[in-house]
């Protein structure tokens, strides 16, 4: 286990040792990459035990999707519609009132008979692959800390994101692409790059953000190409740069910043061709593109599949700029939002299954929290005279996972009869993190990084693996 | 025991800083750090070589490299006197203010746009005057207390109404505009986090969860900024550069103002017109009877020739208010009694006529004189009656005005000032942060956790707030700025600059922070004195590497036992590239913001970048500029491949590398060794080592000329000429590009060369004339032209096409009506400048309809390569006749410079 008690210096040392054993300098490694060699063996770390999943895709419904309108049916809400629910002391961000029934129809799907609302009809075609956790809980009803908790395991302090921890733990399978990619169409979620930060982990474990709404790959990744420069010419340039940097670092000892920057050039050089190819969904046959359907979310699902095939470890697909799922005013807005992503998610799951990728890919769907079964009351600036929306809810919400060693067609935990609060087998975000790391072959208490005299981990001092969801 | 407890209870940052005892002869920074090292068993790193002190100081103080002469001095005489003199020199450079203004712009969440602004121009035309004020303030070493107070309340502190210091109020006004409430919240936030590192905004909905900050604290400050107004006409605080430009600007402004006045006048006339006035009366009568709402007034008014709903509703209310007046009463009675629409129309027309012609002193004239009467609305306030469409046109003009102010060379600088509202109301708490839910009203108070108490009567509470923050007894203010300055020099703060509240435990180096804070106050809040104090310490001059055994105790270097090696931030990085390429103009400071993506901005330092908070350029994001929607306490530093791509392919880097390598002095050097030496001297201000010389020489010597030949590819020209039946040299460009096609006159049907036009996907031939799509090669190789032609008309003349290359015909055929054919010419060898033409002819006449086309060039540079597409007419369709430069001539020397700019040595200051 000592392998994972690394410091920034150790990482450099490990790598250096390896290269020296191989009789190569940094140039040697990079040359391997230039010649098309796959350097995965050099950087992939080993998990603690046999992993079920090797890669993760996080479908992030930012803003907070409502559980009682999607994956957690509550007939009782119909009965109490317009009436006060017999619940107490559940304060959320804004004032809320009586019960608000769902305007969406639920139906059973698959052999498992999993109940899913009409909003996710396409996704529900894979009901028997879904493992739905209906008893999620977080700490506070506010977006920013909840996003930080879901992504980085702490609502307030600057901590590395889960994707960074996993990239750190597993390394990259493809040296030519970033191990960790965050795609969001048309902008960024709130808290922006903090959602995929590496914090005190070395900078190369940070997520690489790309705007998936840009169709021209050369424009999506700024400065991706210099049309006038031939490959052979740039390769020679990089070779010179490497020699210069090697001399520089040799007289300065190990400095992870210098190392990371050297590597960023190797990565950038190879990204030029590999990324052009990986992100170009136009290279998919028309029937595949039709399967995913129109729109930016569908396109990024398809990009995700292409990236998974190329060994990218951790992919986040954000629904959109800001916090689209934040339906304070009118829950009907969920219909539009689901329409934007449901077909793409359904096609993505089908495509992964068909290609045999789903077994080793853990797909996670959810927001930073859920929404109240109670209606949100009007106030200036929001909710003017509509009264059909729901407030944030961290007491109970739903996420689902698929593939990557989770039980399919399975429901874990439950909220109360109104869908307000997790009451059966509650799963805190820390527990979810522990479980995800477990599926990837890591003991969440052992995947640590020593920083400033302390061993840090994703789950801090919390987290229990939810064994009941593991197949 | 008791006192010990209470001392523990009181949060460190809320107690006044106390100066630590330090021996007179020792430097306080070094003495206090030495104490901390001793306690933690840390060993200090050795002093770095003097050259590095100066590099650090130059980049840290000015954001630019030191001069050769300065480097020579410190290397020749690395004594205290030289070191101090150099620090003074750097502080006296105007570049100092530019560098430190940019730091403060992070604190002040500076941007040149207001955020999302629907369909209007979202620029702040005068945000730059705040930035320029900051540059000036740092260069002039404005005492911090003055610096602070001007940014909160300059309007109360200057003696004339267009004083340049009013620009300081940009601190409050350059923020994100997210609606009135959010704008006020933003100002509370930037003031309290910016000057006090306190998260007062957390108390917006409820008392702070962890800090002793109450909602009353928040709403006290909120109410101060709630009682401010921004003047529509911002004070002019300087002159336009040229009088003529100013005159031209004034003329443009007058035009827009006149257009605005004319529109308002039209509306005034409309309200009194023979056509509209009776309709207003009639509908107002109905609206009154039927109790219409605004929506009803909109739809019914629209049916009567776009009556403005607001005016209609005003008439309705006005008639109500004066229903008892004799003439109005009579008319109302008559209207109620009228038999039909015609009778009512007549009554309204009669009243309208009478009203317009009313003699002075009469009843109707008296009514017209009342403020609430729609007839009383002049051009000054008739905009209240504007409907959506009027509003759209008005916004267009406001946008035009904003554009004029932002772009016209004669637009004088103005301050983004604000002032107090005419009346001060009490403060009010919004329950749970909800403005609709007004809770308790109360007397505005100073922050309770800093002592509280009512603000002084008879003084602007905003000024009082500024004074309270600037008060030497305020335990936070000096610590907060000293902590920032420390972090900007040393790469890490002494205490978390984002939060000085109880969540932040007592910093290990609090005695140091406090001693610096007290010293800062004793020196009258001089930032330059603080720089002198910090830079003369040994701590500033330590080596970046130190004892390995320290790593197990304090790897993160929180005790500053060695120098924190840091990457240059975005601004310094870009400025260093431009300074070393020689293009950067550092002669003057200030001026309008420039868009960094435009090549013309290369002469300006990065502090002058146009910052669009709504669409932040990707380069800013990649290089860690904090998002300017909020105050930023510190920059995050990331290493991402996008940064590397900037140095591999970024336009600025390529452009400047080409520029430097074509420098006449460089070109004139006799051999490679001297050239390499020249480049190292330019970029690093040092000679290359023997090894470096060898590496660079080998690299240049082994450059493969084939790598520098322009890649096979080219561009297109659209030409026409008389049809000579063979390749012709007599070709002309089209004079007009409009409606997405090239043509001879605006209307091809009446053109002397009838019908002739060419677009990206198709066009029309003209009888006995040729149309030529010419591909011109940038590179060398074997190429051929292929494509598809489709006639869109069933009957008509037969056309003809040809592919010519290097003066020979490579393919030709007739093109029948209704045809859709694939075409291909034979392969030819081309070198740069050679052309290949597609020629469309109409030898039999031009009754032919449009021809749709696709035209491609495929080719390869050598037999060993696969054939690839190297040109596509539709994709590369030219929309301008301007000459297209061939691929820039590449040069291994430019490549070498580019990579030295990319190197770690260039980006990390040891």
Give the helix level of chain B as a range of percent: 40-55%
Backbone shape of chain B: flat
Number of helices of chain B: 34
User: Given this structure, which CATH class of chain A is correct?
Assistant: Alpha Beta
Unreliably modeled segments of chain A: 1-44
How many domain regions of chain A? 1
Note down, in words, how this protein is organized.
The complex is a heterodimer of chains A (471) and B (910). Chain A is 33% helix and 17% strand. Chain A is α/β, with parallel strands linked by helices and 471 residues long. Chain A has one domain: Alkaline Phosphatase, subunit A. In chain A, the strands form five sheets. In chain A, strands 1, 5, 6, 7, 8, 9, 12, 13 and 16 form a nine-stranded mixed beta sheet that branches. A three-stranded antiparallel beta sheet of chain A has the order 2-10-11. Chain A has a two-stranded antiparallel ribbon with strand order 3-4. In chain A, strand 14 and strand 15 form a beta hairpin. The longest helix of chain A is centred in the middle third of the chain and has 23 residues. Chain B is an alpha+beta fold. Chain B has 34 helices and 21 strands. The two termini of chain B are 48 Å apart. Classes of the chains: A alpha/beta (471), B alpha+beta (910). At the A-B interface, helix 9 and helix 10 of A face helix 24, helix 26, helix 27, helix 31 and helix 33 of B.
